[in-house]
Amino acid sequence: LADRLEAAWKKLRGQDKISQSNIQDALREVRRALLEADVNLQVVKEFISEVEAKAQGAEVIAGVRPDQQFIKIVYDELVQVMGETNVPLVQAQNPPTIVLMAGLQGTGKTTATAKLALHLRKIDRTCLMVATDVYRPAAIEQLVTLGKQIDVPVFEIGSDADPVEIARLGVERGRAEKFDTVIIDTAGRLQIDADMMAELARIKEVVQPHETLLVVDAMTGQEAANLTRTFHEQIGITGAILTKLDGDSRGGAALSVRRISGAPIKFVGVGEKVEALQPFYPDRMASRILGMGDVLTLVEKAQEEFDLADAEKMQEKILAAKFDFTDFLKQLRLLKNMGSLGGILKLIPGMNKLSSDQLQQGETQLKRCEAMINSMTQEERKNPDLLASSPSRRRRIAGGSGYKEADVSKLVSDFQKMRSLMQQMGQGSFPGMPGMFGG
Ligand code: GDP
Ligand code: MG
Q1: Rounded to whole angstroms, how far apart are CA atoms 277 and 280?
Q2: Where's the SRP54-type proteins GTP-binding domain (predicted)?
């Protein structure tokens, strides 16, 4: 068992590097996760080959396997591609800020218009909504109703007017009445349609919006990519709102939209209600898309807990024979913080064959050591020889920790054995704790 622990410690010290061979399975899993999240196939291919190239040779952090580390790198890259932080709505130097909503029919444009207006109202930005969808029956009424609900005015002149003209007049009204923001809701079609695109382009030319937001239904899946490309090429978008994320969609469309247009997702829609709008956060979306929260948590935990500088100091101490009970306790806590011993050892290849009895025993031993060290004075921790020569000290510690004097004696002698073994090794590699795991 001591050999295995030695191997474990080598791993914990992070001697691995990511290479083509040790991430094959992880690559396959990441590809599958992205496709399942409905990221566009082409986007998946490009993204993965980029990350793979970037990850080659990366150091694997202590306590995790190369493939797990790779998944963390994928995650970080996803966050980066999606913009790292939330990008808020543009605010024009000279109000009103003009926002043009674009997107297919049924994606949630009208709902998003109201959601956005409510969001702005809450941060004290006054809003005028403009209803230009003259095609769908009751589309104007829908916006008017929503406006009443959230107490935001709607500019409309009926369904006989020309949408471009409505938009122009709406912006004029917004300017005259000193609204902070004018949001123009537009008509969609079930599919990309030349007439719709032409009309949107004309509205855009006439109102010169500060923001053109593409509203994308997260359930659109693979199609989100083509959709984004067409809208971006023909209209030019400055951002997007991803709707219906309250469904089962894993949100892969977010990555496609961003990769293809370069424009940030600014908000996400998470329900039918007007309140159901949230700022878009790349990190949250990245974990949702990847769907590997467990691995990410593990790697993050390991990263937090294992301070490399600390590890190096520890090695110096070992070499200088200054490794004491305080350091030992630190090591024990490190193991504990990183999760149960069993959990950690299982992550290390070749270490997963320990029986649960053995693991249980290891855990118990760790707890026992910690309890006894906790009952030592600072002086005793620094100088284990004090304990070797003083039965009364050992008895006191035994009493304080609830163990027997014999247990304390064993801890002290094990510790001394371990320390001299470490010094013999000379290289500072941690040989494990002989005897302490019943090995
Ligand atoms: P438009 O045709 O693009 O204007 O789409 P609408 O705003 O009329 O919305 C179409 C349907 O999608 C409506 O039934 C909305 O209630 C619904 N909807 C919009 N956004 C969301 C959302 O974020 N989540 C859910 N579950 N439904 C939404
Ligand atoms: Mg609509």
Answers
A1: 9
A2: 264-277
